[in-house]
Design a protein that fits this description.
This protein is α/β, with parallel strands linked by helices and 482 residues long. The strands form 8 sheets. Strands 3-2-1-7-19 form a 5-stranded parallel β-sheet, with helices on one face. Strands 9-16-10-11-12 form a 5-stranded parallel β-sheet. Strand 1, helix 1 and strand 2 form a beta-alpha-beta unit. The relative contact order is 0.10.
């Protein structure tokens, strides 16, 4: 049975790798619209900041033979004949088809932002792909002022990265506070102050109405709704993304905000699966790497005949910007009588902590600033484990104290998953440690732990440090591996 994958991004590549593990010999064709090998899109802000090179972003290639068609776009699906048509004129038959088409950046309707053909004017760029990143870096070499449209995760990461390169960076956000889905107003205010200290100015409730260009049509500034004009010789558009469902719509598949799938990751056509940013499962489009890789594992099992179901993901979001420590979990906006909310704010030290608890389980959290307990909070949320009776220990615990002490959830068992993106357990990390990997970087090279979204890095660092500290802080490595 032949399998065709449309999309060579993080979701499609992971599906191919998982399928190859389960079935090394099945005919497998992977189409990728972008040229070159697959890369870790989540780490693009690190490239923008100068902390990584393009080679550092490369994803491991699936073991075993596959027919990779990079730089080729699938344009149509013939469901009756089970054939995909591509822009190179090829027609490829499938028995099982996997759509991992990802998402596309939202470009707002701002006067002067686009040319007549719909492309962005000179000096403006979206921030979504490696090619986008290279365009931004090329423009940044001769720029002084950058304006970033959008105060979500990607916009803040782009602004911080460019500020780190010496540009004067401003974030213009139309909403009332930053990252409104993940943060409350108090957390946003402290994050705004943190960013200001790192060279990033934030303007909220600031709608952009026009882009100003020079006689050559190159960006020179933006105009806000209140008439304010901001100088800019580089404009980065980071106003969110939408699932890329065009191929599915043309094929007559059921779609909503994404391509609708069931618990087996099947679309309305049982021969076609969808996963990653383009998939909508139980009304949810995740847009994060960990759910995409969970979906890829399930879809690979189903296609290979091993079974499996996907019941949704618990969301952990991490802002990856040098000098900013921020992790959010679940829904930080829950407000009902059954939910206990515990908060601590220290604006002078740029610290904000908030946990939301229902029936002794974490349903949401915001951890901003220097929070040594963030690893424990993440573990408790990820495992849906009971929290301590005194929830304050979640905010003020130090390594080796509080919920991590004496057999509580902070000390992982061998089978506990510490890196959700790559499915790396405590036992796997301990095995690598026993084999000589003594730092987080060395463990990552061996196990791939923390190389996905990066949200587990604190947890991995804490566990590696505990292994090195010896049995006074954690079980002996032999016990963890057992």
């Amino acid at each position: 049975m032949s399998v065709v994958v449309v999309g060579n991004g993080m979701a499609g590549t992971r599906f191919a790798a998982d399928l190859r593990t389960l079935d090394p010999h099945r005919p497998l064709v992977v189409f990728g619209a972008e040229p070159g090998r697959a890369y870790n899109r989540v780490l693009l802000p690190e490239l923008l900041a100068g902390r990584l090179t393009p080679d550092d972003l490369a994803l491991p290639e699936p073991s075993g033979a596959l027919d990779l068609r990079a730089g080729v776009t699938v344009t149509a699906i013939d469901r009756d004949r089970r054939v995909v048509c591509a822009d190179d004129g090829s027609r490829t038959r499938y028995d099982a088809l996997v759509l991992a088409t990802g998402s596309r950046p939202v470009v707002p309707a701002v006067k002067g932002l686009c040319r007549d053909d719909g492309s962005l004017v000179e000096g403006a760029a979206v921030f979504r792909t490696l090619a986008d990143c290279r365009r931004i870096l090329a423009a940044a070499r001769g720029a002084r002022d950058v304006v970033v449209l959008g105060g979500g995760l990607l916009g803040l990461e782009a602004a911080r990265g460019l500020a780190r390169r010496g540009l004067r960076a401003r974030v213009v956000h139309a909403r009332g506070h930053l990252m409104e889905r993940q943060l409350d107003l108090d957390a946003s205010r402290i994050l705004t102050s943190t960013l200001a200290g790192l060279g990033v100015e934030v303007l909220v409730e600031a709608a952009t109405v026009a882009v100003v260009g020079d006689e050559d049509g190159r960006v020179r500034g933006v105009v806000l709704e209140d008439g304010t004009r901001l100088p800019a010789d580089l404009l980065v558009v980071a106003c969110g993304v939408r699932a890329d469902i065009g191929l599915a719509v043309r094929a007559g598949l059921r779609t909503g905000r994404g391509i609708v799938v069931d618990d087996l990751m099947r679309t309305s056509d049982p021969a076609i699966h969808a996963l990653g940013d383009c998939a909508e499962h139980r009304g949810q489009v995740y847009g994060l790497v960990a759910p995409a890789w969970e979906q890829a594992r399930v879809a690979a099992g189903v296609v290979a005949g091993h079974g499996g179901t996907y019941a949704g993901s618990r969301l952990v979001t991490r802002l990856k910007a040098p000098g900013v420590d921020l992790a959010t979990m679940g829904d930080p906006h829950v407000r009902d009588e059954a939910t206990e909310v515990v908060t601590f704010a220290d604006p002078a030290r740029h610290v904000y902590q908030k946990v939301l608890i229902r029936e002794r389980r974490l349903v949401g959290a915001i951890m901003l600033g220097d929070n040594p307990s963030v690893g424990t909070v993440t573990q408790l949320f990820d495992r849906d484990a009971p929290v301590p009776v005194d929830a304050r220990s979640l905010l003020f615990a130090r390594p080796g104290t509080g919920p991590a002490a004496n057999g509580s959830p902070g000390v992982p068992a061998a089978g506990d998953t510490l890196c959700r993106c790559n499915g790396v357990t405590a036992g796997g990390i301990a095995t690598a440690w026993l084999a000589g990997a003594r730092t987080t970087e060395e463990v990552a090279r061996v196990t791939r732990a923390s190389t996905g979204c990066g949200g587990c890095r604190d947890t991995i660092e804490g566990f590696v440090a505990a292994l090195s500290a010896g049995p006074a802080h954690t079980p002996a490595p032999e016990e963890v591996v057992a």
